Structures are given as structure tokens and as C-alpha cells.
Amino acid sequence: MNNKELIKLDRSHVWHPFTQEATAPDPIPIISASGTTLNSTNGKKYLDLISSWWLTTHGHAHPTIAKAIAKQAKQLEQVIFAGFTHKPAVTLAKKITDILPKKLSRVFFSDNGSTSVEVALKMARQFYLNQGEQRDKFLAFEGGYHGDTVGAMSVGATTGFFDPFKTMMFPVDTISFPETWQDDPNVEKKEEQSLAELDKYLNKHKKQCAGVLIEPLVQGASGMRMCREQFMQKMAKMVKQAGVLLICDEVMTGFGRTGEMFASQKAKIKPDIICLSKGLTAGFMPLSVTVCSQDIYEGFLSANFDKAFAHGHSFTANSLSCAAAVASLKLFKKEKTLKKVAKIEKIHKQRITPLLNHEKIEKPRITGAIAALDFKTKDPGYTSKIAPLLKEFFINRGLLIRPLGNVLYLLPPYCISNKELHKAWDGIEAAIAEIDF
Ligand SMILES: Cc1ncc(COP(=O)(O)O)c(C=O)c1O
Question: I want to staple 281 with a disulfide (CB 3.0 to 4.6 A). Which of 102, 271, 285, 290 is the partner?
């Protein structure tokens, strides 16, 4: 099939995610990838600077992970996970719980980020119900994104992505998120405000609230909005004192993005439930885990099936996905991956500094491998008209940078070389210089 035929068939039969198919340019066909580079069928190369929707960690087509999947595929590709188990899942559960805070000791598997959040919400809700407490409320942070299934949309409603589905969602309470950036003079005020809202909410509703849900340190989809570790600590303390479950959605921040293995670890907080996906399998296979404390797990134990967690997916704990995740965790150790993240952060800092007072940009911010800045526009937000211009500008230069509206960010695979990262920043500098709006 040549390029033209492939595109024609795609346009006749395929429906792409988060895409306005009527106006979007033709998708770019990719035939192979290696490290940070995507190779298109027409011979063009693209530097993947967003880790293909925040998935890739060690690099595309990393041979160690490819080998682990191939080996597992010849042995056991999949088995029903109710009443059965297998070595890749058990090994992964042990490895994950070994690197999480001690209290997070039980692993529930599903297959994508949204389902890991659905599992967390249902788990929290039924946990209380099983003890005879009806807790119908959840508290989330404004701008938090947690996925596209109905429960995940409900807790992420303030992102504004889900307006057509308003009547399908259940009501969720929200408080402000103290987003901040370098040299932000108002950070303390914003944190005080958010904590005051939390205090007021918990005082009133702590006995009806099943969980407080947060993307720790960085809200991804709403524009790489960052908050400080000290805010996370104060927030976590208040939630704990109120006796409400703290749920950290680390679907994006997990596996090194913020500089530590987990953002909650970097912020020195210990959630009761954590949601992980994306980088879990190094971006190779669909898999997620919702890891909870032993207390929560024990809340479901009974002679009665009614108290069991009646939730599961066909591909729960798929053995190929688990094998990929196990291989990835080994690589984190072997390749000293977090050191690579520290190197990326250093270059981000070096390159963002000259832009700090640039008239066209604002809110420069960095956490670990994630660097972001806002283009000043009259129409900020996800639908900003600057977004397609920027996207095209970068793609034409062989850079896969996909702005979130007027927010430009880099979130590269950790194998990126210094030269490649500087090339990305050169591209950003060129965009700032050349694009006017
Ligand atoms: C923080 C967070 N939670 C949940 C999700 C949903 O994950 P998925 O797209 O795998 O359903 C995402 C996806 O971007 C995310 O960033």
C-alpha cells in the first residue's frame, strides 16, 4: 500500500481521537520509530517531543521491551484474570508495590488511564458503603483531567472538554487549583485560597465525601498547570485529618515525568489510592493499575459477594502488557533513567531562562522532564487559534510538539539526546520569533 492509498483508506474508514475530522489535515503515516524519532512512510522524520501523548519513556521500539513482549507472546498472551493468575502480573504487582509507599500494597489491574480512575472512584465509594457509610460526593480540582469515560469526565468536568455530555455526568464538587510558574508573586495567595476552600468543604462535607482526587504537581491536559510541593503537603494533611481518601491520578505524572518515579513521592505525600498507566509499560502496551492500601482492600472482604468489587475488563492484567511493564521497571534501574530526567530538566532550565521576560510569552514553568510556557493571546485556552499555527510550524520542521491551545510544552522520551533537546528549544525560539498573532 503506498502513502496515497493509505491516507485514502484512513480518510474513508478511520475516525481519529480529539480531532475535528472536517478541518484537520491528513494524518501523518508512521511506519517505524526508534528512540525519539518517528519515521513516516514518505521518508520524513519527526522528533517526538510529547512522548506520543505522554506514553513513551525509554524510547520508541526499545529492544529490551520489544523482546520481553515477544518472549511472553510465545508463552501466554492472555488469560482470564478472575480465578486465574500469571507470573508477569504477580511480578509487576510486587515490583510496583516495592517502589510505592508501603501502605499502597494492593494492585487492581485495568487497561487505560480512564479506567484506572473509574476503578479508583468506584473503589472509594464502595469502600465506605461496605462499612455502612453512604458517601456520594467527590472533590476534585478545577482544571483536573482524568480521562474520557463517564466517571472520569465527571471528575474532570471543569476542563471544559465535555460540554456535550453534561447530562450524562454526575455532580462533582471542585475547588481552585493554585497553578503557578517561575517568579509568580501570587503563589502564596493562591495556595491559601485553595486551602481555605478545602478547609471549608471538608468541614461541611467530610462525612459525605468518598475521595479527594488530584493530579499531583502537574495538571496535564488543562495546560501543564503546575503547583508547588508545599501545597500538596498541606492539602494531603488536611484530607487525611478529615478522614477522607486521597486519590492521586498519576496517569501522566507517573514513571519519572516530574523527576522522581512518582509526583506524589516528589511532593512527599502518601495517597490512599494511586492511578497509573501510560508510562507503566514504557508506552508499549495498554495497561493501568489502581493501587490501594491494605485497609481499603480489607474493606471488601466478606463471606458475602455483595461486598466484593464487581469490576473487571476483558484485558485485565494482560500478560503481554505486564511483561512490558516489568521489563520497563528493570530498565529504570539499569539505565539510571531518573538521571536522564535530571539532565533533561537542566537543559529545560538553561533554555527557558532567556525567555523569562519575553514579551510574547508568560508563565514559564518546569517540573522534571516537563517544561511549559504560555503564548500571550487574546483567546487563551484549548481552542486558541494559535494552536494549529504552532502545530504546523513545528511539524514542518520535523518536530512533534502539540500545543494545548496557547500552551507550548515539551515532554520528551527520556532517551532524548542533548542535541535533540536543544533542537526542540531552537524550534520553540523560532516559533516565538516568527509567529505573530
Ligand atoms: C492525568 C490523566 N488521567 C487520566 C487520563 C486518561 O488516560 P487514557 O487516555 O489512557 O484513558 C489521562 C490522559 O491523558 C491523564 O493525563
Answer: 285
